[in-house]
Amino acid sequence: MPASAALENSGMTERTRASKTDGNGVVRIAAVGDLHVEEGAQTSYRELFGEVSRAADILVLAGDLTNLGKPREAELLAEDLRACSVPVVGVLGNHDYESGFVEEVSATLRQAGMHLLDGQVTELMDVGFVGVKGFVGGFGPRMLGSFGEPAIKAMVAESVSEAMRLENAMRQVRTKRTLVILHYAPIPETVAGEPPEIFPFLGSSRLAETIDRFKVSAVVHGHAHRGVYEGRTPGGAKVYNVAMHIAKPTGRPYALLEI
Fold first, then answer.
1. Which of 3, 46, 107, 126 lies 20 to 30 Å from 14, alpha-carbon distance?
2. What pTM, to 2 d.p., does this model score?
3. What structural domains and CATH numbers belong to the chain?
């Protein structure tokens, strides 16, 4: 296992320095989620990643990188990532867990050079990147509570666990600028446009409650293909839905943020 992967798996902070910024300048971050790479599809992201390399300093991937979580899908994405000449950092999404090969998928992406976060923080160009997948649970006073059947309590426990892992990672940040990477949404505003019946399955306010205990520059997530691009946590942190299906100011599948 590469040293960087060992650090990430142990929950330790990895500090990676790059030379494009002196620590006081703007860092340009391209962010996109929900690529859904398919095993038999003809779609390639090689051209898009090459474009990102010219437009941004860092690429952020916000989960659902594969369609069914198959090792071959991860291999296809890894091949396309070779066209990206800037650092890549991100998280997995629910689709990446579908087939039970999450360890193989993760290993393939890390071997391709991706900083894959699952409750860790990594520093690139003096920006701290904190990443967890997140989980379901609903928003505001209608969040699912830990009451009743064991299955409900297990679901809430998973949601709480993701929020706690996010908090533990946030406490490791040593940079003045921080970007939080999620797959599930932390607020309902950026999932507006999805059927109201599925809102509880698109994210959880527990993530926003954790985020608002810290100073962050921005938050990105995916998962809600029919949501909206921008919102804020109750504490005022900017949140961007960067699922590739969402219309963005760039007019491209990826958002371009300046941190």
1. 46
2. 0.90
3. 9-258 (3.60.21.10)
